[in-house]
Amino acid sequence: MIAIDNLSTGKRANVAHLEDTNRFTLVEHDIIMPIKIVEDVAAIYNLACPASPPKYQIDPIHTLRTSIDGSQNMLELARQKSARILQASTSEVYGDPETTPQPESYKGAVNTCGPRACYDEGKRAAETLFYEYRKRHHVDARIARIFNTYGPRMDPQDGRVVSNFVVQALFGVDLTIYGNGQQTRSFCYVDDLIDGLMRLMASTDGVSGPVNLGNPREFSVLMLADMVLEKTRSSSKLRFLDALQDDPRQRRPDITLARTILGWQPSTALTDGLDRMIAHFAQELCCQSKVAVS
Ligand code: UDP
Fold first, then answer.
1. Which SS3 state, helix, strand or coil, does residue 178 take?
2. Bridge partners (DSSP) listed for residue 149
3. What is the layout of strands, in order, in the sheet containing 43-46?
4. What pLDDT does residue 289 have?
5. Burial class (CB in 10 A: 0-12, 13-18, 19+), 216
6. If we measure between CA atoms, which residue out of 95, 9, 78, 6 comes closest to residue 42?
7. Burial of 17 by CB count in 10 Å (0-12 exposed, 13-18 middle, 19+ buried)?
8. pLDDT at 291 (0 to 100)
9. What percent of the chain has pLDDT over 70?
10. What are residue 239's DSSP bridge partners?
């Protein structure tokens, strides 16, 4: 197995246990540049691109190029190697949706000129590249639209809501709520998501269009904050900050298609996934003794 990563948001320590085996190689490379691979390649998961808003907004043009130039380079590699390829697309292609839950047929409401556009529009353009390579070059290309995902080994500095709240609660500092906290997300545990991605890659059903992968249970940001505070028995308070520009107000996947063609649905409830994540973060942040996970 070969992993290609420019380590802009990841770290080598996350795969140290794999590097100790002789079946895994990590190549430090930025996929906006083409890459030559001498080995045979059967399948490519294109997971490249920072997904956390504060991270992908650091260098928006690079973010856009990661999804567009990076996808094209990976599609060319798939074409050369006759490999199957799966694109990690996103629920952000739906923007700030006017309908809920969001089925794959919903075309989205995305602002092309806003702080999230570099990510959203890059991922939308990548879907089009996948569609065209499939049609014109007969590349076996698949697209997963991934909804909010969380779990152990997330970077404590990632900046997204679940890791922020867990870290803040563990350190006893205020939980930062953007806007009034009534906006919703549907949080999928990482193991469930990986199971869905692997099923989509393995599928022989001739699935050609995008497939939503996410947990259909929807929570407001305030509900999430309450759960984290209760589980960590933290004395942290809530601090309400200005709402973020173009922040989607609601998000919940319709996973009928994934259920039907992949036989997939998430099996980890948020309460259980949070327990595992809090335990991992407590250990990572060396404050195990301060925390009693419920
Ligand atoms: N959010 C928040 N406090 C934080 C981080 C995020 O209230 O410290 C909110 C954010 O405004 C959004 C939701 O939580 O409404 C999910 O944000 P995240 O960055 O995790 O993911 P995304 O917006 O990309 O779905």
1. strand
2. 188
3. 43-46, 84-90, 141-146, 210-213
4. 44
5. middle
6. 78
7. exposed
8. 47
9. 97
10. 176
Q: How many CB atoms lie within 10 A of CB 268?
A: 19
C-alpha distances out from residue 237 to 156, 168, 225, 250, Å: 19, 10, 10, 24
Q: Is 247 in the pocket of ligand 1 (CB under 6 A)?
A: yes
Which value, in Å, is the radius of gyration of the alpha carbons in the chain? 19
Distance from C-alpha of 116 to C-alpha of 228, rounded to nearest angstrom: 27
Matching residue, tokens 């152990």: 152
Q: Which residues contact 217 (CB under 8 A, 6 or more apart)?
A: 186, 187, 269, 270
160: CA distance to ligand 1 center in Å?
Answer: 6
Q: Which CATH code is given to the segment(s) 31-293?
A: 3.40.50.720
Nearest residue by C-alpha to atom 12 in ligand 1? 247
Structure tokens at 206: 């001739």
State the average pLDDT for the chain.
95
What number of residues does the chain have? 294
Please give the number of the atom of ligand 1 that sits closest to the Cα of 244. Answer: 11
The pairing of beta strand 149-150 with beta strand 188-189: parallel
pLDDT band at 287 (very low <50, low <70, confident <90, very high): low
> Cβ(160) to ligand 1 under 6 A?
yes
Question: What would the pLDDT profile of 233-284 be if each residue is shown by its tens digit?
Answer: 999 999 999 999 999 999 999 999 999 999 999 999 999 999 999 999 999 8
Residue 150 pLDDT class (50, 70, 90 cuts): very high
Question: Does the pLDDT of residue 288 top 60, yes or no?
Answer: no
- Average pLDDT estimate for 98-103: 98
To the nearest 10 degrees (0 to 180), the angle between helices 221-232 and 161-171 is 30
